[in-house]
Design a protein that fits this description.
Number of domains: 2
Shape: elongated
Number of helices: 8
Structural class: alpha/beta
Strand content: 15-25%
CATH class of the largest domain: Alpha Beta
CATH topology of the largest domain: Rossmann fold
Radius of gyration: 19 Å
Oligomer: single chain
Length: about 230
């Protein structure tokens, strides 16, 4: 699986972007400062770095120059610094791309895929299928199969939401995180749409929808897929 490293000190943005990229079949590692970035690179294989320039312990441009001097990992700079001088400096210091905040997660995904394609990173192997509680999600066919191999029909939103939960069993996703995964959910009705999608999924995979054992409601927080 292709591994991305997000270096960002805005916890809310970090959480949203990580969830969106994970939904799109990436393994995502996260850190909030330059020290964490350097340590993560030392201990993990990283295919691409998404780097914010405003970090608590070191200017992002300085970190960018250090990274580029020691390795060739593709780097996308994301920053609220929108001046032409900052963008030029980022590219001169070795960034492969520069994305100004605010941005849509879909735009970052496009740029990530574009750079990985150019750099020859190939990740088609590992996360083609996700198994949970005897069920199987097929990423290629966008399909769900039961333990007998029969397909259960899912809508696009149902498939995306179930994939997010199944990739990280035990992790609680807030409704806001789940909403951010869907480009076409906006406004006050979005939270209700998530609840409805969860309800429909439970009818398809739970033995007893009144006492769900797979998709669990975490009171006051959101939803998670139980481990098992």
């Amino acid at each position: 699986m292709t591994t991305l490293l997000l270096v960002e000190d805005d916890e809310q943005l970090l959480s949203v972007i990580a969830a969106y990229l994970e939904l799109n079949d990436f393994k995502v590692l996260q850190c909030e400062d330059a020290a964490g970035c350097l340590m993560t690179i030392e201990h993990h294989h990283i295919d691409l770095i998404v780097l914010d320039l405003t970090l608590p312990d070191e200017d992002g441009l300085v970190l960018l120059r250090r990274l580029r001097a020691s390795n060739s990992i593709p780097i996308i700079v994301v920053s609220g610094r929108t001046s032409g001088n900052d963008r030029v400096a980022g590219l001169e210091f070795g960034a492969d791309d520069y994305l100004c905040k605010p941005f849509l997660p879909k735009e970052l995904l496009y740029r990530v895929n574009n750079i990985l394609s150019r750099s020859g990173v190939v990740d088609k192997a590992l996360d083609n299928q996700v198994h949970f509680h005897g069920w199987r999600l097929d990423m290629s066919d966008k399909a769900l199969f039961d333990d007998r191999g029969f397909e259960v029909q899912l809508t696009r939103h149902e498939f995306q939401l179930l994939t997010a939960l199944a990739r990280h069993p035990g992790r609680t996703y807030s409704r806001e995180e789940l909403i951010d995964m869907f480009n076409d959910l906006e406004g006050p009705e979005s939270t209700r749409a998530i609840d409805i999608t969860i309800s429909r999924l439970r009818k398809k995979i739970e033995m007893n929808v009144k006492k769900p054992e797979k998709i669990i409601t975490v009171k006051g927080l959101g939803y998670k897929l139980s481990r098992g």
